Amino acid sequence: MATIRVSLTDPSRAWPHPRAAIRDEGGKTLEVSRTTATVAARWILRVWPEADWTRPHTFDIQRAALTGSEVAAGRSR
């Protein structure tokens, strides 16, 4: 499953900043420009404003579904 992991904690920034890591079906991280990653993160943040963005979330591209990081990692809330 291809996914985009989105968070507001970019390690290169001192303040909240949209960040996205894009992975293909095999789990390999795809290299995209910083602009593309930021646009993808902002789009997901705007579509799901009610999500708790203090924690990272994973967007499944095929299902168009957003899950919390603890769910994606196999842990329940």
Please explain how this structure is put together.
The protein has 77 residues and is an alpha+beta fold. Helix content is 23%, strand content 23%. A four-stranded antiparallel beta sheet has the order 2-1-3-4. The longest helix is centred in the middle third of the chain and has 14 residues. It is globular. The C terminus is likely disordered.
Number of continuous helical runs: 2
Radius of gyration: 12 Å
Termini separation comes to 22 Å
In helices, the fraction of residues equals 10-25%
What share of residues are in beta strands? Answer: 15-25%
Could you give the order of strands across the largest sheet? 2-1-3-4
> pLDDT under 50 segments (min length 5)?
71-77
Q: How many runs of DSSP E, i.e. beta strands?
A: 4
Mean of residue pLDDT values: 86
Order of helices and strands: EEHEEH
- SS-derived structural category: alpha+beta
Taking the sheet with the most strands, its summary is: 4 strands, antiparallel
Query: What shape does the CA trace take?
Result: globular
SSE arrangement:
Layout: E1 3-7, E2 19-23, H1 34-47, E3 57-60, E4 65-68, H2 69-72
Antiparallel strand pairs: 1-2, 1-3, 3-4
Short description:
The protein is an alpha+beta fold and 77 residues long.
Identify the notable features of this structure and list them briefly:
alpha+beta; 77 residues; 2 helices
